[in-house]
Design the sequence.
């Protein structure tokens, strides 16, 4: 199994740029240590690395090690960049993870320009680190939300909960403590 080359420090930016400039097939995962979707998709990424073709170079680069001119093209985390044998470049932003409609899930829908979203980002990241293993956790920027879902969003941030029973519950407004997010999961009716 090819282990991915891993870069995490700002001092590694020149080496990362050199690697990215190579004319060979590669897949690069650009991630953030504090990103819920990055944390969630870590296991599928490692599984991919175990079974990946030997003729494709694999890299993972933490946001601090991404060269500045490359970072301007990154719209979110994680970002997967593929450079093909034919020289084409393709990108995907967002967790590559099988999501099941039968599993409980909480999704934070936010806007980059929303003050309440910015203020509640830290508690959300803390929640992601301590979230129960039996619930899927996602974060989606408003521009990436499908139109049919967006019609039900009344403001930002919105926390959308899909329960084991198949119910969908929403909370609009900043939850400023990881415990508030956990309470919403446990008792969505009492948190509205």
Sequence:
């Amino acid at each position: 199994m090819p282990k991915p080359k891993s870069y995490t420090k700002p001092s590694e930016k020149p080496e990362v740029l050199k690697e990215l400039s190579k004319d060979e097939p590669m897949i690069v995962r650009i991630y953030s240590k504090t990103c819920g979707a990055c944390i969630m998709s870590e296991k599928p990424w490692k599984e991919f690395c175990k079974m990946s073709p030997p003729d494709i170079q694999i890299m993972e680069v933490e946001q601090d090690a991404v060269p500045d001119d490359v970072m301007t093209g990154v719209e979110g985390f994680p970002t997967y960049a593929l450079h093909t044998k034919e020289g084409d470049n393709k990108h995907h932003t967002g967790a590559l993870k099988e999501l099941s409609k039968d599993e409980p899930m909480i999704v934070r829908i936010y806007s980059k320009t929303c003050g309440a979203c910015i203020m509640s980002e830290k508690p959300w990241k803390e929640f992601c680190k301590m979230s129960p293993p039996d619930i899927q956790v996602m974060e989606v920027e408003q521009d990436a939300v499908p139109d049919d879902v967006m019609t039900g969003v009344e403001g930002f941030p919105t926390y959308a909960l899909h329960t084991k029973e198949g119910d969908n519950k929403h909370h609009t407004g900043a939850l400023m403590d990881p415990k508030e997010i956990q309470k919403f999961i446990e008792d969505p009716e009492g948190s509205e």
Remarks:
- Strands lie at 5-7, 26-31, 57-62, 79-83, 89-93, 105-110, 136-141, 158-162, 168-172.
